[in-house]
Amino acid sequence: MAEREHEHVRVAVIGSGFGGLGAAVRLRRQGITDFVVLERADSVGGTWRDNSYPGCACDVPSHLYSFSFAPNPEWPRNFSGQPHIRAYLEKVTDTFGLRPHIRFNAEVRSARWNTDELYWEIETAQGALTADMVVSATGPLSDPQIPDVPGLDGFQGKVFHSARWDHDYDLRGKRVAMIGTGASAIQIVPAIQPTVDKLTVFQRTPPWVMPRADRKITRAEHWLHTKVPATRALRRQLLWSIRELQVSAFTKRPKELGLVQALAKAHMHRAVKDPALRARLTPDYTIGCKRILLSNSYYPALAQPNVDVVASGLKEVRGNTLVATDGTETEVDAIIFGTGFHVTDMPIAERVTGAHGTTLAEEWKDGMEALRGSSAAGFPNFLTIIGPNTGLGNSSMILIIEAQLNYMIDYLRQLDVLGGRIALDARPSAVHAWSAAIQQRMERTVWKTGGCDSWYLDANGRNTTVWPGTTAEFRKVTRQVDLAEYEVLRTQPGKVTEDAGTTVEAVA
């Protein structure tokens, strides 16, 4: 560890999920090998390593939920499960020779900008290092969120979050409470329902659920995609195009979602015959306001005699009795929280200190803002992959990640062209203008007008999570760095100066 105390690298990447591994591949393909990937766990995979709960799978088609530069003709199903996606990321790691760059068990404890030397000082669980640039790829779905429920500490049974599944605990014959009805919960419920004695689902808000067009991919398809790569590319293109055409309904004309909503209701009615249960499961908001979920087994599981749906959130815990907001009391042996993640308050932001001596969390206390989803003002040479307003409600996040990686590569190219010890710091005016334009566009979207309270919204009710446009548009606006949006910082003996920033802004 001692030899790493003063190690310096050009780029330090935080996290080894899709974003971190994608960044590493792009750096190597650009000829940049002076970088490290700092991973807090002992293996790669990010959210696809952490989420190993029963039934865990992706709700985006496999051939679209993969890197364009690392196609996989061997996906087993239309919608692949967690083990296959994790195996894919392991394969990407080995195929592109990334392991020598990865530091496992190296959780980033702090990253502080040195304004004199223009580099980042990073403290990790494996020691210290410095870096010209930091690329944070921790992702918004990395740190589980468990609500502060009164009395939870006194519960005598088993408690865990869906993203920290306890595989040593046997649920067979147990009375289990599932808290939440999000994307993880609707996969967990049908997976455990047949084996538990009693399953109680605490549903604060019912989701809209659509059929899942999943099937096993045939050997003929595997052969064709392997021998004729153009067919694989065509399949990906078709999947992408369909989702691009859907965007306008979410972002400009939510009323067009009426037919989709009717299909979702029909899907529920086919599986749930009890009118009282259907009433509890029917949302009172426009479909798409919260993420549309896909499942063929969720509703049938809820209709089983050993399942009870409490149309209320969890209010408190009294011993082994759970008390819902509506007063319903249920005695259970285990509590599973499917209550999401710290999305609008990412914990990594508390560990990053910028040029003004404030943390990213402090700068974002009134809402996350980042230029083109990547650069926060006052944090030079710091880029976030899957940053503010880069999320998607209907397509593959890998498309967004790859667009941001294009931006990262051009950022590094700009630094090379400018030359010397140098940094780029996003101008506050550019960041605010970018954010204001997004929020203005957000006013017409279903996420704003649909009448729901979703995890897309921050504590102030602003949607700082989702991108209100197509992935093609996002790729266009992140194709290259516009220096007019940045202050150029250079070192001189004893001080740091701005270089041509005022002139560039005036011209712009």
UniProtKB/TrEMBL annotation:
Q: Where is the signal peptide?
A: none
Its EC top class is: oxidoreductase
Q: Which GO terms describe its molecular function?
A: monooxygenase activity
Q: What is its EC number?
A: 1.14.13.-
**Coiled coil (residue ranges):** none
Q: Which UniProt keywords apply?
A: FAD, Flavoprotein, Monooxygenase, Oxidoreductase
Q: What domain of life does the UniProt record list for this protein's source?
A: Bacteria
Please state which protein family the record places this protein in.
Belongs to the FAD-binding monooxygenase family.
Q: What is this protein called?
A: Flavin-containing monooxygenase
Which source organism? Streptomyces ochraceiscleroticus
